[in-house]
Amino acid sequence: MFETLSDRLTSVFSSLRAKGRLSDSDIDATTREIRIALLEADVALPVVKAFVAQVKERARGSEVSQALNPAQQVVKIVNDELIAILGGETRRLRLAKTPPTVIMLAGLQGAGKTTLAGKLARWLRDQNHVPLLVAADLQRPNAVTQLQVMGERAGVAVFAPEPGNGVGDPVEVARRSIDFARQKQHDLVIIDTAGRLGIDQEMMKQAADIRDAVGPDEILFVVDAMIGQDAVTTAQAFMEGVGFDGVVLTKLDGDARGGAALSVRHITGRPIMFASTGEKLEDFDAFHPDRMASRILDMGDILTLIEQAQKTFDEEQAAKMAGKLTSGESFTLEDFLEQMMMVQKMGPIKNLLGMMPGMGQMRDQLNSIDDRDLDRIAAIIRSMTPAERSDPKIINGSRRARIAAGSGVTVTAVSGLVTRFFEAQKMMKRMAGGMGIPGMPGGRGKAAKQQKKAKKGRRVSGDPRKAALGKPAPEPSDEQAPKKQGGLLGNLGGGPKLPPGLQLPPGFDPSKLNLPDDK
Hints:
The protein is an alpha/beta fold. It is 52% helix and 8% strand. Strands 3-2-4-1-5-6-7-8 form an eight-stranded mixed beta sheet, with helices on both faces.
């Protein structure tokens, strides 16, 4: 959605990195490029003016002029302003003190309200709620049937007393749904209302009547992110006719320029609460302004990646696999297949890699990634026998031909997979051994050996005379040790014998001499 804007901003910031200090002309040129990038992304003109003015004011302040790296400081300013224009903080649903909490969806026809109702219900179900979908769109053909299908796929109950297709009173259906939810102990009610191809008084009156009948805790305006500046006009009309508390963006996975996301929040003053990023029910999540700003500036979205991994990977299974790797046990093709299947559950590989910082500069390579390659790898591994998966070394020529025939690929593809797996297995073993790196698992043993070797010191010669030169003088035993007498002659009483001619007279006791102490 924001690829064009992201590319333009990235190129602007790359030109700043070579500058040690930023002049006023540099700041003017940078903000001019930012203005052009935002206008090309179809951001509303009032939003562009306010954004650029704020960036320029902060860029000329002390936080940039006194910074060691002005370019990084400008990136931080743009990031902060993007977060502010997208809403600042993540806005959570307000839950009613007394259940059920009523959520009403409003918007134009074609914005994706009915599909989004199913996605929101599934998301709330995963948050340990018990939602109820209400089919109050009785005008559009088959809208009731569509909501029932979405509810079945999401594993959520649907309240649909009227067949729709122009039959039934939507206000009465919405009113009755609240009593039904209380009886069946649903703590959340999601009301899908009718839309029109354009804004008209009849649609606004019906939405206002439903609002007055049920008193919703949250009114969510559903807007197609691909309609550009028209989203702002529609949002203003709904704000005046019905009013709403938050915005839900749909079709964020499209190839439109994404100006609606940056414009609706600023114009209406209402936060973006949810975003739909695909056709599947799981392609839906709360909208995080800081993460979206990080994506636009090609700084990645690691937090979302971690959250998706936590949802997908079984903790016990992941701990078991981590223990196998750190202990140095063999990593088999069965383990590889298991890990690959878990990664596939997280979503398309291209989307996962796109959350990594700097991946915007490798967009062409990311676009060339095909998830069907993983399916082919899985087919190859599943065509192997259990013995071949646990020990690929036994896969000879005839086995490779059989595996290739069973998986519908060439023998070369099978050989390539086996070869790459052996290389990966070697890397796993090196990592398990720690490769001598302090702090790495397995590295302690090697470090201990090196310390033990260092303690050995230099070798001692076998020649006693040479060995004596390298040895310190032996400490005398208690019997051989002289008795310390103190003073200058304190070592004469019991020391070694004096040379001939220097013998003391018989009966001479040097301890009785009155000599000054040498302390």
